[in-house]
Amino acid sequence: MIMQKTYYIQTFGCQMNERDTEVLAGMLKKMGYQKSDDLQKSDIILFNTCCVREKAENKVLSYLGELKELKSKNPDLIIGVCGCMVQQKGMSDIIRKSAPHVELLFGTHNIHELPDLVENILASRNPQVSVWDSEGEIKENLPSERQLSFKSLVNITYGCNNFCTYCIVPYVRGRERSRSPEHIIEEINNMAAAGVIEVMLLGQNVNSYGKDFGDQTDFADLLKMVNEIEGLRRIRYMTSHPRDFSDKLISTIAKSTKVCGHFHLPVQAGSNEILKKMNRGYTRESYLELIKKIRDKHTDAVITTDIIVGFPGETEEDFLETLNLVEEVRFDGAFTFIYSTRTGTPAAKYKEQVSLEIKKERIQRLNNRINLISHEINEQYMNKIVDVLVEGESKTNSQMLSGKTNGNKTVIFPGDISYVGKIVPVIITEPQTWILKGKMQEI
Ligand code: 5AD
Ligand code: SF4
Questions:
Q1: pLDDT at site 1
Q2: 306: left (phi > 0), else alpha (psi -120 to 50), else beta?
Q3: Which CATH number fits domain 385-440: 1.20.1050.10, 3.40.605.10, 2.40.50.140, 3.40.630.30?
Q4: Is the pLDDT of residue 3 over 90?
Q5: Beta bridge partners of 428
Q6: Is 160 in the pocket of ligand 2 (CB under 6 A)?
Q7: pLDDT band at 442 (very low <50, low <70, confident <90, very high)
Q8: Nearest ligand 1 atom to alpha carbon 345
Q9: What is the C-alpha separation between 1 and 40, in angstroms, rounded?
Q10: Which CATH number fits domain 6-130: 3.40.50.12160, 3.40.1500.10, 3.40.50.1000, 3.40.50.720?
């Protein structure tokens, strides 16, 4: 019996990488490789990496070290690293030096080269390093192995032109490019026909969708088109930039029947001084005004954010302004990060770096405040019935199902696995800080 060859991909970072992994998996499947859940027994191991913060990079480097032994036991094993980390200047050399057992390295702009690179290794056993300096044309119609059958990620833009001063993304994902509405609609049409009921439209800044077309088509127009797709029940998007969230977009979302009432609007900081140094392009006041406009039109909007603490030069007063903004907005939830210096970004050169001790103390204070508010907001869900798209078994308790509300809150409740992929009504009986527990209603 011929054993089928297998692959194992570990993904780090954001949904953009998750989506790239689906494409990598699709190409490997087409080459005859089968997905494996056991890294130890795979023929190809790929790490699709992130470099937004140093921690993510260190994790990859340490995992790679652990693979050395596996490679010496199985010289035919192909170990590859791709994604944002590899796209940084000089990084492929660093990885090759620190982990010579890694024979395959490619960046974010040429994932479609994976089959050729693997073939080259198999034919010659020579290491393959291919990192493009800049983005090429958008490649449509690459094969893809979707993770879920009912909920899908869909790229709408690639790259970022914002150059927030702390952020490495514009350097590793290239300039902003939008996919044509025709390609996007065709992809979603096909998926909806195959049973997908929720899509997440992906871009570093979805609000700049279409700016590179030269006509008037914008993100709001795209949402209108996606809203028309038959069979689709929910539309989400990630991430929007507060500077570009237009009135047209707010009213388009209010009028649409499928776009979810979840607004993820990364504020990053509450002090105008820091926002300016971050090059965010909005002020505290304009951000608060935007939140007010959204809440005026969407009374039950779920609003979440990203916040960085310890940006260079952040004083206690600046930080208090962030805390104060959190109080004022009352976010449903927030991802909070300690500022991480990224070589090559403007902020890396700023004097007055904040000490790790202060950063840790600030993030703790911030999280305490955010969690209390999340809990208070979630308590208002007590005895309310919410529609939940069931995603699978709960990660912490296999007796329970886990799913998401329209506003993206996680709901955990007892139920049968046959409900996975369906939208079911759930009454909330135990609201907590990060999850809502409940009971499914008869349908
Ligand atoms: N340090 C810490 N957090 C960062 N983010 C981006 N770059 C950095 C950095 N250098 C955060 C921002 C962004 C989220 C995806 O990651 O908050 O919104
Ligand atoms: Fe990074 Fe700013 Fe672009 Fe987001 S908008 S990816 S934070 S540069």
A1: 60
A2: beta
A3: 2.40.50.140
A4: no
A5: 438
A6: yes
A7: confident
A8: 10
A9: 21
A10: 3.40.50.12160
pTM of this prediction? 0.95
For domain 151-379, give the CATH number. 3.80.30.20
To which H or E segment does residue 88 belong?
Answer: none
Vertex 14: Cα angle to 355 and 313 (nearest 5): 20
pLDDT over threshold 90, residue 214: no
Average pLDDT over the chain, rounded to an integer: 96
Task: Say what percent of the chain tops pLDDT 70.
Answer: 100
Domain boundaries, the chain: 6-130, 151-379, 385-440
Q: What is the DSSP string of 91-121?
A: HHHHHHHH-TT--EEE-STTGGGHHHHHHHH
188 band by pLDDT with thresholds 50, 70 and 90: very high
Integer-rounded Cα radius of gyration of the chain? 23
280: number of Cβ within 10 Å: 22
- pLDDT tens digits for range 344-368: 999 999 989 999 999 999 999 999 9
Token match 């609003």: residue? 303
pLDDT tens-digit readout, 253-311: 999 999 999 999 999 999 999 999 999 999 999 999 999 999 999 989 999 999 999 99
Question: Mutate which of 53, 279, 342 to test ligand 1's pocket (most atoms within 8 Å of Cβ)?
Answer: 53
> Ligand 2 mean position to 160 CA, how many Å?
6
173, 204, 339, best to mutate for ligand 2 pocket (most atoms within 8 Å of CB) = 204
Of 379, 367, 386, 342, the C-alpha closest to 171 is: 342
In angstroms, what is the span from residue 163 Cα to ligand 2's centroid?
6
CA distance 82 to 68: 18
Supply the residue whose CA is at minimum distance from atom 14 of ligand 1.
Answer: 306
